[in-house]
Specification:
1% strand, mainly alpha, two-stranded antiparallel ribbon, single chain, 357 residues
């Protein structure tokens, strides 16, 4: 029986960055024999390793550590830390790919992302689109443990001693058997995580389409100031966009962590789904507030871009004060689903709440 490693939460960000670095190295090795793919690998590295809060993969690892309502032992699988780390990396890869596509001129037409030129401005639109496509497919490979890790070249040297060679062969065969046994035990949770990520991609696509078809903020102004039946409808429309574009991936991150922690099925992780949905909505509404009240120096992107371009914004429907109140309500709901404010998941909810005061 394999031993489950208990990792320090303080090292989560470094651990995520290291895994993403391994992914970029693997993609660079895969692309090195194709000169036309070198730019694609560089664009992926540019988009994936450009910093960011990494809150989605951190939520995945926090959900792995602290499921608040564990099921009976007979209905749980054995926790797998490697599944959790790969799921967290896959979530961040999907997020980075969605940002590349979201920034394109035909979408949000953004100029800055994380205080740097957007990927399509740095590498061109065709390369950015291909990089996003490859990143999505590679995320699925990472989630099921199939993306090869780049290995450092070994020094060639003379190996002497028959006994030493025999011991080395035995140790290698033992590691191979352990690896096969571990992969067999991880197959079911990895496939469940993959199904959750696919569902998130569908939700994100739906949210993006709603975003593109959404009426401009000018149309929402009279609804907000004049009241009437249109206000609840506009509010629900904005929430539908946010639930798809942002909430779907937060939901998948939390559920993937619960599945890696041993939840027997996606249905058994209902608490994680509730947490991710509430936190994702709160996060995006907080982002709407910051887009209205803060500058590029704080947010890393063009201030007021969403309002100026007529994109769905909760601030356009409820105002800044109403949006802050909604963030407080949603983060309280997320903290309750995640086991309370004192838990790792509860602390993420408090962090989002504190962003808008």
């Amino acid at each position: 029986m394999t031993r489950v490693r208990v990792q320090d939460p303080a090292d989560d960000r470094a651990r995520i960055e290291r895994r993403l670095g391994h992914v970029c190295a693997s993609l660079r090795v895969l692309c090195r024999d194709r000169p036309t793919s070198t730019a694609v690998a560089s664009a992926i590295r540019y988009a994936l390793l450009s910093g960011g809060k990494r809150i989605r993969p951190a939520v995945c690892l926090a959900a792995f550590r602290s499921p608040p309502t564990p099921a009976a032992p007979s209905t749980r699988r054995r926790p797998s830390w490697s599944v959790a780390v790969d799921a967290a990396a896959a979530v961040e890869m999907l997020h980075a790919a969605s940002l590349i596509l979201d920034d394109l001129p035909c979408m949000d037409d953004a100029l800055l992302r994380r205080a740097r030129p957007c990927t399509h401005l740095a590498f061109g639109e065709p390369t950015a689109i291909v990089a996003a496509d490859l990143m999505v497919l590679s995320a699925f490979q990472v989630a099921i443990g199939e993306l090869p890790r780049a290995r450092k070249a070994r020094r060639e040297g003379r190996r002497k001693g028959r006994r030493r060679r025999r011991r080395r062969r035995k140790a290698k065969a033992k590691r191979r058997r352990e690896r096969r046994a571990r992969r067999a035990a991880e197959r079911a949770p990895r496939h469940a995580v993959l199904a959750e990520l696919l569902a998130a991609c569908e939700g994100m696509s739906h949210g993006q389409m709603l975003d593109l078809m959404f009426p401009s903020s000018d149309h929402l102004g009279p609804l907000r100031t004049g009241g009437g039946e249109g206000v609840p409808a506009a509010r629900e429309a904005v929430l539908s966009v946010h639930l798809g574009k942002t909430g779907a991936l937060f939901e998948a991150a939390a559920v993937a962590g619960a599945l890696a922690a041993g939840a027997a099925s996606r249905g058994a992780a209902a608490w994680a789904r509730e947490y991710g949905r509430a936190l994702g909505l709160a996060f995006q509404i907080a982002d709407d507030v910051l887009d209205t009240t803060e500058t590029c120096a704080t947010t890393g992107k063009t201030g007021g871009h969403d309002v100026a371009s007529g994109k769905p914004s909760f601030v356009a429907v409820a105002g800044v004060a109403g949006s802050r109140e909604e963030v407080r309500r949603l983060t309280a709901r997320a903290a309750a689903a995640g086991g309370g404010e004192g838990t790792p998941l509860g602390r993420f909810a408090a962090m989002v709440r504190d962003q808008v005061g």
